Design the sequence.
């Protein structure tokens, strides 16, 4: 073997081997979900299930109480879609305002927005809870969804940066053609920021899908539980025998995340590399 | 063309949602939280003004609080540097012309993608179980298995490992930074006979330092607020022996388990102050190690 090829081989063994090592727990989780529940830890050192069973999925899908896992997935999907619509509309409007319109106090409000980026949620968590309690919004999606319609600083910032790269000549041409400001937003800017909106949508999906603290605070009845809360319930009811079902539903909860990632990989990687969005 | 009034009106129409949301969901809660932090408040009876008692209690008569603060500092100051070092080493390994880099980049990013989920926390809890695969691996290397849930230090390390495992998003940012360093710098250094380490410390680190700064700040803030893994891995208890009682988890328990809303608010304010101090310290230190290129190059 030529030295150059040998060097390449060593590189792939190290880099590839380390990648496999890192992802081994995930393979193990997936494979264990196809093992007989009582055999998972007896055969923890083997990756391949023997026998290969689907019973954990059937059992997990039944959920608990009167609610199947399908209900929790539907609840989460509704939650995600409502937040998604909110973020796309509000963040694009607000970002357009900051990036394109000259108005008194713009820099002030922009600075305020950047500051809210750094604000820990814990600081506003308790008063927000009290406010929503007084509005009688507890045990509903409202406290989790309504704020999304008033923008999210991370995505506003991302979109502002993106809009700034679009030449202003396009706006001016539209004004000459008789367009008003809203027309510029709707007809010129919106179609051009689709890639940044995609990044916004993808990360909104991830963060909402994974959100645990919000649902733990605001949703009490199992009929309204999201997937992450349902998994948390599985865990609190953990008995010796239902690891299999818990693993199976954990895998189910990861499937949409992987699907979205593999379809939109480019936007995810670019979103992180350019804006430092935490994935 | 347009009057100022009209410009202002349009501006405020567009950013109006932000201002309303900011007032309703941020500024009013901030003021309320500031007020609650000086009260005793259980959510059912009206808040009672107690001055600085919450803050005094935290630092003088609540050992659990001091413990929680201590392990959170350990979690942040061990976890974040390890995570950044891993991210940088792997980014450098992937900064080659190999065709497989795209695939590797994806594989290394996957833990970050799923790391915040309940599913992964459940997975982590189980691989570190007494007969989990981590102990099996340790045994096969001739090391005694560790009872990860049996002692608080081991349990905290379990959380730190989970945080380091998710180095992928920082790695992507470093990789983008590495790609923007002009190749000619390295070539010139090679001509002058520079070793790998000389190039690393004199070209790579200075050129990458603004990106490292950004990552250090964002990761420190995020790490300080870690909640889900501690909550899931300890089943909400913060155990064993408060070994995983990270700050956010203790705050949550004070607020929503013991209904000490005033105390929890005071904790949130101390957290805000600590984060502000940490961020400014990192910023202040940056003038000694962050190198800003004047002409392009990022």
Sequence:
């Amino acid at each position: 073997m030529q030295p150059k090829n040998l060097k390449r081989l060593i590189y792939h063994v190290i880099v590839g081997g380390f990648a496999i090592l890192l992802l081994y727990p995930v393979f193990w989780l997936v494979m264990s979900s196809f093992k007989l529940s009582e055999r998972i830890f007896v055969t923890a050192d083997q990756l391949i299930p023997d026998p290969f069973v689907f019973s954990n999925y059937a059992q997990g899908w039944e959920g608990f109480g009167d609610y199947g896992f399908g209900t929790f997935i539907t609840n989460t999907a509704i939650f995600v879609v409502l937040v998604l619509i909110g973020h796309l509309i509000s963040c694009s409007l607000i970002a357009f305002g900051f990036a394109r319109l000259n108005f008194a106090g713009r820099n002030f409000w922009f600075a305020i927005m950047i500051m809210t980026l750094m604000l820990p949620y814990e600081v506003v968590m308790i008063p927000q809870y009290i406010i929503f309690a007084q509005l009688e919004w507890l045990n509903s999606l409202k406290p989790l969804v309504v704020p999304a319609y008033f923008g999210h600083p991370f995505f506003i910032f991302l979109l502002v940066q993106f809009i700034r790269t679009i030449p202003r000549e396009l706006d001016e041409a539209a004004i000459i053609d008789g367009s008003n400001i809203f027309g510029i937003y709707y007809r010129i800017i919106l179609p051009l920021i689709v890639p940044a909106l995609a990044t916004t949508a993808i990360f909104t999906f991830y963060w909402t899908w994974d959100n645990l603290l919000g649902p733990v605070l605001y949703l009490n009845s199992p009929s309204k539980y999201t997937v992450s809360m349902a998994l948390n319930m599985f865990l609190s009811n953990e008995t010796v025998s239902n690891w299999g079902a818990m693993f199976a539903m954990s895998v189910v909860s990861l499937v949409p995340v992987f699907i979205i990632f593999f379809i939109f990989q480019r936007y995810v990687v670019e979103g992180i590399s350019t804006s430092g969005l935490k994935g | 063309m347009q009057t100022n009034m009209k410009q202002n009106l349009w501006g405020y129409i567009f950013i109006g949602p932000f201002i309303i949301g900011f007032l309703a969901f941020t500024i009013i809660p901030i003021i309320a939280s500031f007020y609650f932090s000086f009260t005793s408040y259980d959510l059912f009876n009206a808040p009672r003004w107690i001055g600085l008692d919450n803050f005094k209690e935290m630092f003088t008569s609540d050992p659990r609080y001091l413990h929680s603060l201590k392990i959170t500092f350990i979690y942040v100051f061990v976890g974040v540097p390890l995570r950044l070092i891993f991210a940088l080493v792997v980014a450098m390994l992937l900064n080659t012309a190999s065709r497989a880099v795209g695939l590797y980049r994806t594989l290394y990013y996957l833990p970050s993608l799923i790391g915040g989920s309940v599913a992964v926390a459940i997975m982590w809890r189980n691989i570190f179980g007494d007969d989990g695969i981590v102990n099996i691996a340790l045994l096969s290397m001739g090391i005694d298995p560790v009872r990860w849930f049996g002692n608080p230090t081991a349990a905290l390390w379990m959380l730190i490992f989970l945080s380091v495992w998710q180095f992928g998003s920082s790695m992507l940012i470093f990789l983008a930074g590495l790609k923007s360093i002009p190749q000619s710098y390295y070539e010139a250094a090679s001509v002058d006979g520079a070793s790998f380490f000389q190039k690393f410390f004199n070209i790579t680190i200075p050129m990458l330092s603004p990106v490292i700064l950004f990552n250090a700040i964002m990761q420190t803030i995020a790490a300080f607020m870690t909640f889900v893994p501690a909550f899931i891995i300890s089943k909400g208890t913060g155990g064993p022996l408060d070994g995983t009682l990270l700050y956010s988890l203790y705050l949550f328990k004070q607020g929503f388990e013991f209904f000490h809303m005033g105390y929890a608010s005071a904790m949130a304010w101390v957290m805000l102050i600590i984060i502000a101090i940490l961020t400014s310290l990192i910023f202040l230190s940056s003038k000694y190690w962050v190198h800003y290129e004047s002409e392009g190059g990022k």
Q: What stands out?
A: Chain B touches chain A through 94 residues (CB under 8 Å).
